[in-house]
Amino acid sequence: MPAPLRLAFLGCGFITRVHSRNLRRLGRRHIVPSYASRDRARADAYCARYGGARSYADYAEAIADPAVDAVVVAVPPALHLDLTVRALDAGKHVLVEKPAFPSMPDYAAAAAARDRAKRVVLVGENDHYKPLAVQLRRVLAKGLIGDMVFAHVVTIARRFKTAGDWRNDEAMAGGDAFFEEGIHWLHFAGSLGPRIVRIEGFRPKPSANGGDRRAKSMMVAFQYDNSAAGALYYSREIPSLLKGMRQSKIFGREGVITFESNGLFVLVRGRGRPRFVWPGITDFRGYRAMYRDFLNAIRTGVAPEMSLERAMDDQRLMDQVYASL
Protein backbone atom coordinates (compact mmCIF):
# COMPACT_ATOMS: atom_id res chain seq x y z
CA MET A 1 0.00 0.00 0.00
CA PRO A 2 1.35 3.47 -0.86
CA ALA A 3 2.49 5.68 1.99
CA PRO A 4 -0.18 8.16 3.16
CA LEU A 5 -0.15 11.68 1.79
CA ARG A 6 1.20 14.17 4.35
CA LEU A 7 -1.10 17.15 4.02
CA ALA A 8 -0.91 20.55 5.73
CA PHE A 9 -3.91 22.85 6.00
CA LEU A 10 -3.04 26.52 5.57
CA GLY A 11 -5.76 28.18 7.61
CA CYS A 12 -7.83 26.89 10.51
CA GLY A 13 -11.34 28.19 9.92
CA PHE A 14 -14.78 26.75 9.19
CA ILE A 15 -13.91 25.08 5.89
CA THR A 16 -10.89 23.34 7.40
CA ARG A 17 -13.24 21.79 9.98
CA VAL A 18 -15.43 20.50 7.14
CA HIS A 19 -12.45 19.03 5.26
CA SER A 20 -11.01 17.51 8.43
CA ARG A 21 -14.23 15.72 9.38
CA ASN A 22 -14.34 14.12 5.94
CA LEU A 23 -10.66 13.18 6.00
CA ARG A 24 -11.18 11.45 9.33
CA ARG A 25 -13.82 9.27 7.65
CA LEU A 26 -11.50 8.63 4.70
CA GLY A 27 -8.86 7.26 7.10
CA ARG A 28 -5.27 8.04 8.06
CA ARG A 29 -3.95 5.23 5.90
CA HIS A 30 -4.63 7.56 2.95
CA ILE A 31 -3.99 11.09 4.27
CA VAL A 32 -2.32 12.38 7.45
CA PRO A 33 -3.20 16.03 8.17
CA SER A 34 -1.26 18.82 9.84
CA TYR A 35 -2.43 22.35 10.61
CA ALA A 36 -0.95 25.82 10.14
CA SER A 37 -2.38 29.09 11.42
CA ARG A 38 -1.12 32.56 12.21
CA ASP A 39 -2.53 31.75 15.67
CA ARG A 40 -0.40 28.87 16.99
CA ALA A 41 -2.92 28.00 19.70
CA ARG A 42 -5.59 27.59 17.02
CA ALA A 43 -3.33 25.28 14.96
CA ASP A 44 -2.58 23.26 18.10
CA ALA A 45 -6.30 22.93 18.85
CA TYR A 46 -7.12 21.71 15.33
CA CYS A 47 -4.21 19.28 15.43
CA ALA A 48 -5.45 17.78 18.70
CA ARG A 49 -9.09 17.69 17.63
CA TYR A 50 -8.52 16.00 14.28
CA GLY A 51 -5.55 13.79 15.05
CA GLY A 52 -3.01 15.84 13.15
CA ALA A 53 0.67 14.99 12.89
CA ARG A 54 2.02 18.51 13.44
CA SER A 55 0.97 22.11 13.96
CA TYR A 56 2.68 25.23 12.64
CA ALA A 57 2.79 28.83 13.85
CA ASP A 58 2.51 30.26 10.33
CA TYR A 59 1.94 29.19 6.73
CA ALA A 60 5.57 29.61 5.66
CA GLU A 61 6.72 27.07 8.26
CA ALA A 62 4.35 24.44 6.90
CA ILE A 63 5.29 25.15 3.28
CA ALA A 64 8.99 24.85 4.09
CA ASP A 65 8.65 21.56 5.98
CA PRO A 66 10.13 18.67 3.90
CA ALA A 67 7.78 16.32 5.75
CA VAL A 68 4.78 17.94 4.00
CA ASP A 69 3.82 16.56 0.58
CA ALA A 70 0.84 18.79 -0.17
CA VAL A 71 -1.11 21.74 1.20
CA VAL A 72 -4.74 22.82 1.31
CA VAL A 73 -5.11 26.57 0.81
CA ALA A 74 -8.08 27.32 3.07
CA VAL A 75 -7.91 31.08 3.63
CA PRO A 76 -9.85 33.99 2.04
CA PRO A 77 -9.57 34.09 -1.79
CA ALA A 78 -7.44 37.24 -1.85
CA LEU A 79 -4.62 35.22 -0.24
CA HIS A 80 -4.90 32.12 -2.45
CA LEU A 81 -2.53 33.00 -5.27
CA ASP A 82 0.45 33.92 -3.11
CA LEU A 83 0.19 30.76 -0.98
CA THR A 84 -0.46 28.54 -4.00
CA VAL A 85 2.60 29.79 -5.88
CA ARG A 86 4.81 29.62 -2.78
CA ALA A 87 3.72 26.05 -2.11
CA LEU A 88 4.30 24.98 -5.71
CA ASP A 89 7.71 26.63 -5.76
CA ALA A 90 8.53 24.58 -2.65
CA GLY A 91 7.57 21.39 -4.49
CA LYS A 92 4.20 20.80 -2.83
CA HIS A 93 0.99 19.62 -4.45
CA VAL A 94 -1.91 22.02 -3.85
CA LEU A 95 -5.63 21.75 -3.20
CA VAL A 96 -6.97 25.31 -3.29
CA GLU A 97 -10.45 26.11 -2.03
CA LYS A 98 -13.02 27.60 -4.41
CA PRO A 99 -13.29 30.30 -5.59
CA ALA A 100 -9.64 29.61 -6.25
CA PHE A 101 -8.67 33.07 -7.51
CA PRO A 102 -10.44 36.37 -8.15
CA SER A 103 -9.37 36.79 -11.79
CA MET A 104 -8.24 34.99 -14.93
CA PRO A 105 -4.67 36.39 -14.75
CA ASP A 106 -4.39 34.79 -11.30
CA TYR A 107 -5.39 31.42 -12.77
CA ALA A 108 -2.78 31.83 -15.50
CA ALA A 109 -0.09 32.59 -12.91
CA ALA A 110 -1.06 29.54 -10.86
CA ALA A 111 -1.04 27.32 -13.96
CA ALA A 112 2.43 28.56 -14.89
CA ALA A 113 3.71 27.81 -11.37
CA ARG A 114 2.12 24.34 -11.50
CA ASP A 115 3.76 23.57 -14.84
CA ARG A 116 7.16 24.76 -13.60
CA ALA A 117 6.90 22.65 -10.47
CA LYS A 118 5.37 19.62 -12.24
CA ARG A 119 2.96 19.24 -9.36
CA VAL A 120 -0.82 18.68 -9.06
CA VAL A 121 -3.25 21.51 -8.42
CA LEU A 122 -6.85 20.58 -7.68
CA VAL A 123 -9.50 23.27 -7.18
CA GLY A 124 -11.69 22.34 -4.22
CA GLU A 125 -15.03 22.13 -6.00
CA ASN A 126 -16.56 19.35 -3.91
CA ASP A 127 -19.96 19.82 -5.58
CA HIS A 128 -18.48 18.36 -8.76
CA TYR A 129 -17.97 15.07 -6.93
CA LYS A 130 -21.11 14.84 -4.80
CA PRO A 131 -23.46 11.92 -5.46
CA LEU A 132 -26.28 14.18 -6.72
CA ALA A 133 -24.12 15.59 -9.52
CA VAL A 134 -22.81 12.14 -10.44
CA GLN A 135 -26.34 10.68 -10.60
CA LEU A 136 -27.70 13.54 -12.69
CA ARG A 137 -24.86 13.21 -15.18
CA ARG A 138 -25.58 9.48 -15.49
CA VAL A 139 -29.33 9.96 -16.01
CA LEU A 140 -28.84 12.64 -18.65
CA ALA A 141 -26.16 10.62 -20.45
CA LYS A 142 -28.60 7.69 -20.72
CA GLY A 143 -31.16 9.93 -22.46
CA LEU A 144 -33.95 8.95 -20.07
CA ILE A 145 -35.79 12.27 -20.56
CA GLY A 146 -34.95 12.68 -24.24
CA ASP A 147 -33.56 15.91 -25.61
CA MET A 148 -32.90 18.44 -22.84
CA VAL A 149 -35.03 21.61 -23.09
CA PHE A 150 -34.74 23.50 -19.78
CA ALA A 151 -32.70 23.38 -16.58
CA HIS A 152 -34.15 25.12 -13.52
CA VAL A 153 -31.75 25.18 -10.55
CA VAL A 154 -32.81 26.76 -7.25
CA THR A 155 -30.54 27.40 -4.26
CA ILE A 156 -32.31 29.70 -1.84
CA ALA A 157 -31.85 30.08 1.91
CA ARG A 158 -31.66 32.82 4.54
CA ARG A 159 -28.10 32.58 5.86
CA PHE A 160 -26.66 35.92 6.91
CA LYS A 161 -23.01 36.45 7.78
CA THR A 162 -22.05 38.54 10.79
CA ALA A 163 -20.91 42.12 10.29
CA GLY A 164 -17.28 41.19 11.07
CA ASP A 165 -17.11 38.22 8.70
CA TRP A 166 -14.33 38.57 6.10
CA ARG A 167 -16.89 37.78 3.36
CA ASN A 168 -18.29 41.28 3.88
CA ASP A 169 -14.99 42.59 2.50
CA GLU A 170 -15.15 42.10 -1.27
CA ALA A 171 -11.41 42.71 -1.54
CA MET A 172 -10.82 39.63 0.61
CA ALA A 173 -13.70 37.51 -0.74
CA GLY A 174 -13.13 38.40 -4.39
CA GLY A 175 -16.70 39.63 -4.84
CA ASP A 176 -20.23 39.41 -3.48
CA ALA A 177 -22.04 36.33 -2.15
CA PHE A 178 -22.68 34.88 -5.61
CA PHE A 179 -19.01 35.11 -6.53
CA GLU A 180 -17.77 33.71 -3.21
CA GLU A 181 -20.29 30.90 -2.74
CA GLY A 182 -22.61 30.86 -5.74
CA ILE A 183 -19.75 29.80 -7.99
CA HIS A 184 -20.27 26.26 -6.64
CA TRP A 185 -23.80 26.31 -8.04
CA LEU A 186 -22.69 27.83 -11.32
CA HIS A 187 -20.27 24.92 -11.68
CA PHE A 188 -23.03 22.47 -10.78
CA ALA A 189 -25.31 23.84 -13.51
CA GLY A 190 -22.46 23.68 -15.99
CA SER A 191 -21.29 20.18 -15.07
CA LEU A 192 -24.40 18.18 -15.99
CA GLY A 193 -23.10 17.17 -19.42
CA PRO A 194 -23.81 19.95 -21.92
CA ARG A 195 -21.56 23.01 -21.75
CA ILE A 196 -22.82 26.53 -21.03
CA VAL A 197 -21.97 28.78 -23.97
CA ARG A 198 -24.03 31.93 -23.24
CA ILE A 199 -24.84 33.47 -19.88
CA GLU A 200 -26.24 36.69 -18.40
CA GLY A 201 -26.77 37.82 -14.84
CA PHE A 202 -29.59 39.74 -13.14
CA ARG A 203 -28.94 41.03 -9.62
CA PRO A 204 -31.68 42.55 -7.43
CA LYS A 205 -30.81 45.73 -5.56
CA PRO A 206 -28.93 44.76 -2.36
CA SER A 207 -30.65 45.34 0.98
CA ALA A 208 -29.13 48.02 3.18
CA ASN A 209 -30.40 46.36 6.36
CA GLY A 210 -28.40 44.17 8.75
CA GLY A 211 -24.74 43.39 9.25
CA ASP A 212 -24.36 41.24 6.13
CA ARG A 213 -23.81 44.05 3.66
CA ARG A 214 -23.06 41.97 0.57
CA ALA A 215 -25.28 41.60 -2.45
CA LYS A 216 -26.77 38.21 -1.63
CA SER A 217 -29.03 37.33 -4.57
CA MET A 218 -28.46 36.64 -8.26
CA MET A 219 -30.39 35.06 -11.11
CA VAL A 220 -28.44 33.89 -14.13
CA ALA A 221 -29.91 32.80 -17.46
CA PHE A 222 -27.85 30.66 -19.79
CA GLN A 223 -27.86 28.46 -22.87
CA TYR A 224 -26.12 25.13 -23.31
CA ASP A 225 -24.27 23.93 -26.38
CA ASN A 226 -27.13 21.45 -27.01
CA SER A 227 -29.47 24.50 -27.38
CA ALA A 228 -31.23 23.86 -24.05
CA ALA A 229 -31.82 26.93 -21.87
CA GLY A 230 -31.43 27.26 -18.14
CA ALA A 231 -31.75 29.50 -15.12
CA LEU A 232 -30.05 29.48 -11.73
CA TYR A 233 -31.76 31.20 -8.80
CA TYR A 234 -29.28 31.95 -6.00
CA SER A 235 -30.01 33.78 -2.75
CA ARG A 236 -28.81 33.87 0.82
CA GLU A 237 -31.52 36.27 2.06
CA ILE A 238 -34.82 34.49 1.22
CA PRO A 239 -36.48 32.10 3.71
CA SER A 240 -36.74 28.46 2.60
CA LEU A 241 -38.21 25.24 3.95
CA LEU A 242 -36.08 23.78 6.75
CA LYS A 243 -33.57 26.59 6.18
CA GLY A 244 -32.37 25.26 2.84
CA MET A 245 -34.52 22.60 1.19
CA ARG A 246 -35.51 23.52 -2.37
CA GLN A 247 -36.59 21.80 -5.56
CA SER A 248 -34.96 21.95 -8.98
CA LYS A 249 -35.91 20.41 -12.32
CA ILE A 250 -34.44 19.41 -15.66
CA PHE A 251 -37.00 19.25 -18.46
CA GLY A 252 -36.65 17.05 -21.53
CA ARG A 253 -38.88 16.34 -24.51
CA GLU A 254 -39.72 12.91 -23.08
CA GLY A 255 -39.66 13.52 -19.36
CA VAL A 256 -38.65 15.54 -16.31
CA ILE A 257 -36.03 15.08 -13.61
CA THR A 258 -37.05 16.57 -10.26
CA PHE A 259 -34.42 16.77 -7.53
CA GLU A 260 -33.84 18.35 -4.16
CA SER A 261 -31.05 20.83 -4.80
CA ASN A 262 -28.85 19.57 -1.97
CA GLY A 263 -29.13 15.95 -3.10
CA LEU A 264 -31.76 14.37 -0.85
CA PHE A 265 -33.60 12.74 -3.76
CA VAL A 266 -33.89 12.47 -7.55
CA LEU A 267 -37.18 11.56 -9.29
CA VAL A 268 -36.98 10.63 -12.97
CA ARG A 269 -40.18 10.58 -15.05
CA GLY A 270 -39.37 9.74 -18.64
CA ARG A 271 -38.67 6.70 -20.77
CA GLY A 272 -39.83 3.62 -18.91
CA ARG A 273 -41.41 3.61 -15.47
CA PRO A 274 -40.91 6.56 -13.11
CA ARG A 275 -37.93 5.90 -10.88
CA PHE A 276 -36.79 7.30 -7.59
CA VAL A 277 -33.03 7.64 -7.15
CA TRP A 278 -31.56 8.20 -3.71
CA PRO A 279 -28.03 9.49 -4.16
CA GLY A 280 -27.21 8.40 -0.61
CA ILE A 281 -25.78 10.10 2.45
CA THR A 282 -22.33 8.52 2.25
CA ASP A 283 -20.02 11.32 1.18
CA PHE A 284 -23.13 13.49 0.74
CA ARG A 285 -21.11 16.57 -0.25
CA GLY A 286 -18.40 14.84 -2.27
CA TYR A 287 -15.36 15.68 -0.15
CA ARG A 288 -14.04 12.14 0.11
CA ALA A 289 -14.41 11.57 -3.64
CA MET A 290 -12.58 14.85 -4.21
CA TYR A 291 -9.66 13.76 -2.03
CA ARG A 292 -9.53 10.38 -3.73
CA ASP A 293 -9.22 12.20 -7.06
CA PHE A 294 -6.45 14.37 -5.59
CA LEU A 295 -4.56 11.29 -4.39
CA ASN A 296 -5.01 9.52 -7.72
CA ALA A 297 -3.71 12.54 -9.64
CA ILE A 298 -0.61 12.74 -7.42
CA ARG A 299 0.14 9.02 -7.68
CA THR A 300 -0.61 8.51 -11.39
CA GLY A 301 0.15 11.86 -13.00
CA VAL A 302 -3.36 12.00 -14.52
CA ALA A 303 -4.97 15.44 -14.29
CA PRO A 304 -7.67 15.71 -11.62
CA GLU A 305 -11.26 16.21 -12.71
CA MET A 306 -11.33 19.64 -11.04
CA SER A 307 -8.16 20.92 -12.65
CA LEU A 308 -7.22 24.57 -12.95
CA GLU A 309 -8.41 24.45 -16.56
CA ARG A 310 -11.88 23.24 -15.51
CA ALA A 311 -12.09 25.94 -12.86
CA MET A 312 -11.03 28.53 -15.45
CA ASP A 313 -14.11 27.61 -17.50
CA ASP A 314 -16.23 28.53 -14.47
CA GLN A 315 -14.33 31.78 -13.99
CA ARG A 316 -14.96 32.76 -17.62
CA LEU A 317 -18.68 32.28 -17.06
CA MET A 318 -18.50 34.26 -13.81
CA ASP A 319 -16.74 37.11 -15.61
CA GLN A 320 -19.48 37.14 -18.23
CA VAL A 321 -22.18 37.25 -15.53
CA TYR A 322 -20.68 40.34 -13.90
CA ALA A 323 -19.91 42.03 -17.22
CA SER A 324 -23.59 41.71 -18.12
CA LEU A 325 -24.95 43.40 -14.98
CATH-derived topology of the largest domain: Dihydrodipicolinate Reductase, domain 2
The neighbouring-strand order within the major sheet is 8-9-10-7-11-12-13-14
CATH architecture of the largest domain: 2-Layer Sandwich
Strand content: 15-25%
The ordered H/E elements are: EHEHEHEHEHEHEHHEEEEEEEHH
What spatial form do the alpha-carbon principal axes imply? Answer: globular
**Largest sheet, strands/sense/barrel:** 8 strands, mixed
Secondary structure category:
alpha/beta
Q: Supply the CATH class of the largest domain.
A: Alpha Beta
What is the rounded Rg?
Answer: 20 Å
Number of domains: 2
Number of strands: 14
The CATH homologous superfamily of the largest domain corresponds to Dihydrodipicolinate Reductase, domain 2
Unreliable sequence segments: none
Identify the notable features of this structure and list them briefly:
325 residues; Rossmann fold; Dihydrodipicolinate Reductase, domain 2; 8-stranded mixed beta sheet; 6-stranded parallel beta sheet
Written description of the protein model:
The protein has 325 residues and is α/β, with parallel strands linked by helices. The protein folds into two domains: 5-125 and 288-303, NAD(P)-binding Rossmann-like Domain (Rossmann fold); 131-282, 2-Layer Sandwich (Dihydrodipicolinate Reductase, domain 2). Helices cover 35% and strands 24% of the residues. The chain has ten helices and 14 strands. The strands form two sheets. Strands 8-9-10-7-11-12-13-14 form an eight-stranded mixed β-sheet, covered by helices on one side. The protein has a six-stranded parallel β-sheet with strand order 3-2-1-4-5-6, sandwiched between helices. Helix 4 packs parallel to helix 5 and helix 8 (177-190) crosses helix 10. The protein starts with a strand and ends with a helix.
